[in-house]
Amino acid sequence: MWDNGCVLHRADHADAAVRQPARNALKTVATLMLLLVALPVNLALTAVAFLRGLVFRSPRQTSPDRKTVLISGGKMTKSLQLARSFHGAGHRVILIESRKYRLTGHRFSRAVDRFFTVPSPQASDYIDALVQIVRREGVDVYVPVCSPVASYYDARSKLALSPFCQVLSCDAELVQQLDDKNEFAALASSLGLSVPDSRRITTPEQVANFDFEAADRPYVLKSVPYDPVQRLDLTELPRSTPQATADFVGTKSISEATPWIMQAFIPGVEYCTHSTVRNGNIQLHCCCRSSAFQLNYEMVDHPEIEAWVTAFVGALELTGQVSFDFIQAPDGIVYAIECNPRTHSAITMFYNHPGVADAYLNDGVATIRPLDSSRPTYWMYHELWGLLTQPRTMASRLTTIARGKDAIFDWSDPLPFLMQHHLQIPWLLIQNLRGVNEWARIDFNIGKLVEPGGD
Questions:
Q1: Are residues 77 and 112 in the same domain?
Q2: Per-residue CA distances from 103 to 32, 86, 144, 224 (Å)
């Protein structure tokens, strides 16, 4: 009886193992078909934009202090936005990306003068490849626009690149510290800044044995190493019973090598920020309402949050790009729940600001914020997918589209919008189909499929 049950159990797992790749392949093919349906409309829009450009094309700006700027992370919208900002100010832009994303639609932007593929950031020859590009192209400034996985490696390149160009990044050791949610919380607390109670977790037993009854708040678990799928799970602990809590924690890959943090859950309103900082001075800053899966950005003036960021970057005399996630509790106190030492996609709100390049390249610039005329940014294909899958959200999504601006599309630079959705993403889907790898969703913002263990 027991043996027969084991056989059936193994058979169920085998059937599931067969069904999952089939379901994934079906989802991938269906998505490719939907993109194909949208292609004629995108082609027509691109054609209209080109014709419009023949009539309204403005001459390229020239800068008396023209620099060559190297930008990484070419697949992501925030890289495209910075490329356009530097190009619009008269600078020369070089864009780079790893070979996996070599067909990024952003390489076709008129703001990009040269595009190169480089090894993955973890590769031993990554920094050598950056040095070669910097020296050959006469790069003056390197602006890393990196994924969470690449942050540390891009920061490591600073030592090798500094003899040849400026690098707008924190040092590697500090990036590592800021990226570690527990170490960041300890650092901010040591500066007298408000953060939730955080505890480093390296075994499931630490959670199972924790005295939740003595705590005045529930907790959530977060992976310290970046996890594109698990980061969306904010299940509150404890669960209904100690066994339910232990079972939940048992589903997480917690170990000394892959630590997690257990962080007090603060109810309230979520915000995210981006700040570009030189020598501890904020030169560019924006703040938005936030959520776990953020794809809409609208500037919110929040003096308490900006004061928190000002105190933090000033105390550490940071140079680089830093983003924070905040919760404002009902009593008005703002708590920083994590720091991401890299560019935030909220930078897209600066699409019409003429001062971005100056804020990035020069010292002593007064803090700039999105212009009052800046419309909220969104991603059209994300909104269209929401209309298809969540028809009850139609009114709010149509309002988003009517009020805002697509973060990729630009009338004077339409090719990235066409090529990102109908070359870059289809190519990734086809590659996924060949490997039959599971993917959770398409993130049009960062130009990739969100996959378990991905970047």
A1: yes
A2: 16, 22, 19, 31
Q: Are residues 255 and 277 in the same domain?
A: no
Are 306 and 260 in contact by the 8 Å Cβ rule? The answer is no
Query: CB pairs under 8 A, 24+ apart, for 252-256?
Result: 252/204, 252/221, 252/223, 254/201, 254/202, 254/203, 254/204, 254/207, 255/202, 255/203, 256/202
CA atoms within 13 A on the CB side of 335: 19
CA of residue 306 relative to chain centroid, distance = 20
CA dist., res. 90 & res. 65, Å (int): 9
Strands 166-167 and 141-143: parallel
Domain count, the chain: 4
What are residue 271's DSSP bridge partners? 289, 326
Better pLDDT: 292 or 162:
162
By the 10 Å C-beta count (0-12 exposed, 13-18 middle, 19+ buried), 249 is classed as buried
Instruction: Tell me, yes or no, whether 361 and 385 share the same domain.
Output: no
Residue 219, domain CATH: 3.30.1490
What's the pTM value of the predicted model, to 2 decimals?
Answer: 0.89
Of the candidate ranges 60-69, 75-84, 147-156, the one whose mean pLDDT is the lowest: 60-69
Query: Token pair 């529930």 is at which residue?
Result: 218
- Per-residue pLDDT reduced to its tens digit, 264-322: 999 999 999 999 999 999 999 999 998 655 689 999 999 999 999 999 999 999 999 99
Query: How remote is the C-alpha of 312 from its chain's centroid?
Result: 21
| 3-state per-residue secondary structure call for 175-212 | HHHHHCHHHHHHHHHHCCCCCCCEEEECCHHHHHCCCH
Indicate the length of the chain as a whole number: 455
Query: How would you list the strands of the sheet with 281-289, edge to edge?
Result: 281-289, 269-278, 320-328, 334-340
Residue type, 30: A
The rounded distance, in Å, linking the Cα atoms of 156 and 167 is 11
CA distances (Å), origin 43, targets 46, 361, 407, 421: 5, 36, 18, 11
Burial class (CB in 10 A: 0-12, 13-18, 19+), 80: buried
3-state SS class at 154: helix
The stretches of 57-125 forming alpha helices (DSSP H) are 77-88
Sign for the pseudo-dihedral over CA of 382, 386, 388, 389: positive
| φ and ψ at residue 285, rounded to 5 degrees | -150, 140
Angstrom distance (rounded) from CA 275 to CA 310: 9
Which residue blocks in 262-393 are alpha helix, DSSP H? Answer: 303-316, 356-361, 380-389
The residue segments making up the domain with residue 353 are: 267-374
